[in-house]
């Protein structure tokens, strides 16, 4: 009987322990340094993956956003922070001057969205004025986050005399009012007294007949009847779109294509034809195709050939220097094949990880993104180009003894395009909508060795996750030019790139 009692007690303890462990499932906890802020203060977010009483390791996607009411039932969401941190690590965000009051939402997810948490912080209403005085002109700026519609007092102090003047202010956030200050000739100490603070400027020379503050005309954006103005703007935009559509329908199609694709005189026409600028050996093609055939996305190419139109990002990358390896190819074809097999294996692996479709035409590597599904294909194209640049640099470092090296350059563009056909001469032709292909080709022509160029429209889409500098504009015609950015080599931007792509593919 005693043995049975002991066994029964052990069973009960086991069941209680199992129940307790089931109750302590993993969860995300968001810790913050405080809940209420004013502009200029720093929010510290610390996401933690909690497993029972322990903090587990793992990557956590953190997002800070705000919602601004635009119409009674419409909100504009603004993302302020979007990055990946390790569990238990901090990420910081400073609420800048003019940050609107209201609730800001913190979201944290991990393990492909299986774990998630949300909490809010509040930015409080904040009144602050900025004063600047130059040559008797006083500029008062509303540096707070709410309209300032109050009077302030200005004290003119000279010797033992104090003269006070009240000034009425009507300032929206960020707006400026200007006043000319006058007083009998002399050097004054000035004090600007608001309901919450006093600001002083000493030894100010002034001239005039009497103490006076004269408001100057400051250009302001009209705020009256803004709803009516918005409605009129929408109507005007609708009429403009209707007019353009009708005008385009009247044009012959051939002429329309010539106008769309006319990036420069060399690219005039409705197609961009890619031809090799450097001959490559059969061994190079075999090495590329051996690995490129493993890309799942290659099966999608026929759908493009038959005329599917969709938004894509395209990476064009001429690879130069194959001819420098001809001597090695003749002396030791096995070694020649091995080094390029290793190179293209690394290149294709990076393309595969970003869901790209790749082909090699002569020495021209061209990669499509967004053939399989819609995601941040613009970021994927940039990241792929950066990684191939790193692979090429490492490849060259590993073969220093051969006195040969590869060089690459790249152009990236995003837009709509359709692959029209593949010719018997193995050249591929693209009907490009909005200069998608021809602009990418023009960027590769402009790029220096090792350089990755993107146009302004792509930079605006990926500016949060790339480190780029503006270079000389690219002239499309004699009178038309676009801004161009060169992507720098910056290892600190990698985490953001990886997070964008993993999130888009549903992997993190």
Topology overview:
Layout: H1 2-23, E1 27-32, E2 36-37, E3 42-51, E4 54-56, E5 59-71, E6 74-86, E7 91-94, E8 102-110, E9 115-123, E10 129-134, E11 137-142, E12 151-158, E13 161-168, E14 176-182, E15 186-193, E16 198-206, E17 212-216, H2 226-250, H3 253-260, E18 271-274, H4 282-292, H5 301-305, E19 310-320, H6 326-331, H7 333-353, E20 356-361, E21 364-369, H8 377-398, E22 407-408, E23 410-422, E24 428-433, H9 436-446, E25 452-455, H10 456-462, E26 468-470, E27 474-475, E28 481-482, E29 484-487, H11 494-504
Parallel strand pairs: 2-9, 23-25
Antiparallel strand pairs: 1-3, 3-4, 3-7, 5-6, 5-8, 8-9, 10-11, 11-14, 12-13, 12-15, 14-17, 15-16, 18-24, 19-21, 19-22, 19-23, 20-21, 23-24, 25-29, 26-29, 27-28
Helix pairs in contact: 4-7, 7-8, 8-11
What's the number of domains?
A: 4
Strand segment tally: 29
Broad shape: extended
Q: Approximately how much beta-strand content do the residues carry?
A: 35-45%
What does this structure look like?
It is a single chain. The chain has 11 helices and 29 strands. With 508 residues, the chain is α+β, with helices and mostly antiparallel strands. It has 4 domains: 9-123, Macroglobulin (MG2) domain (Immunoglobulin-like, Sandwich), CATH 2.60.40.1930; 129-216; 222-250; 253-454, Alpha-Beta Plaits (2-Layer Sandwich). The longest helix has 25 residues, at 226-250.
């Amino acid at each position: 009987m005693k043995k049975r009692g002991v066994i029964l007690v052990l069973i009960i303890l086991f069941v209680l322990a199992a129940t307790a462990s089931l109750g302590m499932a993993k969860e995300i906890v968001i810790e913050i340094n405080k809940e209420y802020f004013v502009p200029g203060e720093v929010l510290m977010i610390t996401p933690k993956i909690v497993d029972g009483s322990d903090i587990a390791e793992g990557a956590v996607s953190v997002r800070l956003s705000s919602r601004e009411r635009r119409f009674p039932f419409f909100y504009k969401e603004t993302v302020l922070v979007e990055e990946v941190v390790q569990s238990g690590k901090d990420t910081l965000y400073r609420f800048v001057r003019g940050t609107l009051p209201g609730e800001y939402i913190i979201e944290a997810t991990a393990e492909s969205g299986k774990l998630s948490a949300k909490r809010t912080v509040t930015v409080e209403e904040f009144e602050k004025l900025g004063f600047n005085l130059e040559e008797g002109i006083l500029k008062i700026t509303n540096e707070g986050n709410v309209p300032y519609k109050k009077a302030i007092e200005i004290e003119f102090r000279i010797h033992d005399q104090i003269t006070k003047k009240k000034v009425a202010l009507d300032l929206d956030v960020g707006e400026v009012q200007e006043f000319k200050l006058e007083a009998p000739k002399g050097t004054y100490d000035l004090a600007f007294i608001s309901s919450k603070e006093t600001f002083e400027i000493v030894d100010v020379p002034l001239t005039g007949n009497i103490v006076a503050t004269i408001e100057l005309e400051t250009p302001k954006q009209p705020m009256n009847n803004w709803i009516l103005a918005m409605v009129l703007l929408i109507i005007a935009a609708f009429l403009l779109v209707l007019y353009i559509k009708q005008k385009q329908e009247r044009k012959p199609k051939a002429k329309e294509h010539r106008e769309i694709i006319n990036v420069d005189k060399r690219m005039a026409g409705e197609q961009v034809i890619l031809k090799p600028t450097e001959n490559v050996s059969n061994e190079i093609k075999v090495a590329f195709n051996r690995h490129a055939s493993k890309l799942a996305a290659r099966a999608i190419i026929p759908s493009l050939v038959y005329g599917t139109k969709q938004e894509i990002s395209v990476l064009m990358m001429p690879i130069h220097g194959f001819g420098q390896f001809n001597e090695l190819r003749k002396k030791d074809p096995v070694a020649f094949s091995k080094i390029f097999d290793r190179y293209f294996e690394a290149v294709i692996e990076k393309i595969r990880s970003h869901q790209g479709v790749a082909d090699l035409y002569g020495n021209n590597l061209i990669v499509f993104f967004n053939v399989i599904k819609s995601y941040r294909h613009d970021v994927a194209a940039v990241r792929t180009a950066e990684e191939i640049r790193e692979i090429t640099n490492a490849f060259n470092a590993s073969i220093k003894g051969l006195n040969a090296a590869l060089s690459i350059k790249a152009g990236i563009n995003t837009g709509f395009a359709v692959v029209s056909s593949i010719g018997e001469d193995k050249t591929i032709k693209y009907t490009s909508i909005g200069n998608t292909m021809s602009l990418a080709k023009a960027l590769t022509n402009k790029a220096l060795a090792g350089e990755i160029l993107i146009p302004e429209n792509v930079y605006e889409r990926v500016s949060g996750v790339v480190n780029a500098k503006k270079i000389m504009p690219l002239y499309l015609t004699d009178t038309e030019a676009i801004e161009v950015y060169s992507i720098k080599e910056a290892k600190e931007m990698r985490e953001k790139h990886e997070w964008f792509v993993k999130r888009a593919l549903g992997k993190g």
